[in-house]
Amino acid sequence: MSLRIPVARNCRIAVLAAVIAAVPAAALAQNDPRVIPPPKAQKKLPEAPAKLPKVGADRTRGLDFLFGALKAAPDEASAKHVEARIWALWMQTPSDTAALLMMRAKAAMDAQKADVAMKLLDSVIKLRPDYIEAWNRRATLYYLKNDYTRSLEDIRQVLIREPRHFGALAGLGMIMQDIGDEKRALEAFRKALAVNPHLEKVPELVKSLTEKVEGRDI
Question: Cβ atoms within 10 A of the Cβ of 136, count?
């Protein structure tokens, strides 16, 4: 379901348009700030599973192999296993400090302490600006706070560093759908599925948006 934006928020849309335009083509290829509002119905962003497997040290080579395995997975169970290994690699960081701050940020988010989580994620990004998952987590936090402008900017940072990040691509699609840009939403969801054909709910969203944007087959 697409959430239409009232006329009174036209200025915000203009800001969003500027941020969206900054996302590379290859990548697309206020509530109380102290409390995180409940996730929108059927709008939960893809996230790492609670338990992650251990993975080897060769990160780049490992990701290339795992993305190939994800596309070729014969069933959902196999796909989820591969997906968990991808998330595990994304979560890895050589910085013990960054890892500790990320753990504390997750705990703060789970405890509905948005302001604490935001400060911790800000610290991780300042410490390790190359750490993709810190950008992705902060994008999720901004999304849950309905701050789409900042969420889009963080998604852009994720996709610059990892264009295959299906979580960020799905998040981009959800934001585009929320602001009524169904064409861009469809494009983002299709890119997410091209990377990970086993994403939950996304195939249904693609089907629904395809009918709206491109019309039904005759």
Answer: 28
